[in-house]
Amino acid sequence: MSKFTRHGKRKRACMRKKANYNREMETISALIVAAGRGTRAGGGVPKQYRELNGKAVLAHTVEAMLANAQIDAVRCVIHPDDHELYTCAINAIEDHRLQSPVLGGETRSESVLNGISAIDSDFVLIHDGARPLVPQDALDRVIAGAKRTDACFLAIPVTDALWQVDAGVASHARPRDTLWRGQTPQAFRTALIKNAHTQATKPADDDVAIARNAGITVTPILGSEQNIKITHASDFRLAARLIGETMDIRVGNGYDVHALGDGDHVILNGIKIPHTAAMIGHSDADVAMHTITDAIFGALAEGDIGQWFPPSDDQWKGAASDIFLRKAVERAEARGFKITHVDCTIICEMPKIGPHAQAMRENLVEILGIEMDRISVKATTSEKLGFTGRGEGIAAQATATLVKT
Ligand code: MG
Questions:
Q1: N or C, fewer C-beta in 10 Å, the chain?
Q2: Could you list the residue range(s) of the whole structural domain that residue 136 is in?
Q3: What tens digit of pLDDT does each residue of 6-51 get?
């Protein structure tokens, strides 16, 4: 090999590396088209603002885009009448990548062009506001496809038989081997699709058609059956079921015992109750609150109260147990979990818990930051059997349900 060729090879490899590096540096925006009226789905408001599992369809869609770390910015195109609906829908989303919405036009194409004009990223993923369930792996595929080809879209090869039906009867089967069902995102180098939209002279169903009309080669990338477009009322039921299947719901349990000794009161779930004995423990020995704390740590699979607050550590001596519970709540929040329910059972003969149960729930409302009807405090005896029956100690157990938001 001559020195010249070797040099040429090295130079080409270098250029290739540089091109790859540049491609990695290129920015990506998601443009969510949500300016339609979507009245076929019923419900009085446009379908993208209807509630699906506790939040607007559009909020799910925006969150799906924000969940992808490769996406640098997310912008919605909305109908001029929908400002209030939009603000309400995205209210709980705190992410600096979500940019202020752009107003749509008379047609879908006009809306998309308005959106693209507000984008300065190298690539744009144009996505239907009514496709809230696009999975991350499909997003990753379409992003990789865009970087490779400059123009691509998610689609699924048709597997059902396709029948030509004439006058209500099957006439003949149509070949399906070359047919794909188109989905979104449809992803393009922004300058290319902007140019295609600006030049477009006839209306088109989607951006693949706009690109094709402008002579751009567009490649299908394997989509996902989960990436449904909500169109009819029944699609909401299907979407809710699909969300349920992918939901991270956790149930944790906690159990604790503290011995009774000399004293004149016990503290249970933060409430001081006069008694002929006191509970013995390193902290305030609030056996009930300890079990709730452990139930939350259990749901998170983050150990137990003893690991977070070792009894050997003097700073927790006599500590009020709400410190421990607040820590568990903080960990749940940090991990993206919402505590949806807590059920605590206290096991003792005396003192009577019933008269204090409501005060305990009120105290837990403040600490857990959830509604009263999601917090249960109840009591049972052990029929005078065992250590709880003999009044030597108080036991408690709790269950906590956490849902990833
Ligand atoms: Mg304890």
A1: N
A2: 3-243
A3: 556 666 665 665 555 566 689 999 999 999 886 666 667 899 999 9
Cis preceding linkage at 351, omega within 30: yes
Question: CATH number of the domain that 180 lies in?
Answer: 3.90.550.10
Task: Answer yes or no: pTM beyond 0.70.
Answer: no
**Tens digit of each residue's pLDDT (9 = 90 or more) over 183-198:** 999 999 999 999 999 9
Expressed in angstroms and rounded, the spacing between residue 283 Cα and the centre of ligand 1 is: 8
Q: Who contacts 132 (Cβ-Cβ below 8 Å, separation ≥6)? A: 52, 57, 58, 60, 61, 64, 230, 239
Q: Which residue has the tokens 């995205």?
A: 90
Give 101 Cα–ligand 1 centroid separation in angstroms. 51
Q: Which residues are within 5 Å of ligand 1 (an ion), measured at CB?
A: 256, 290
- The domain total for the chain is 2
| Ligand 1 centre distance from Cα of residue 287 (Å) | 5
Expressed in angstroms and rounded, the spacing between residue 121 Cα and the centre of ligand 1 is 54
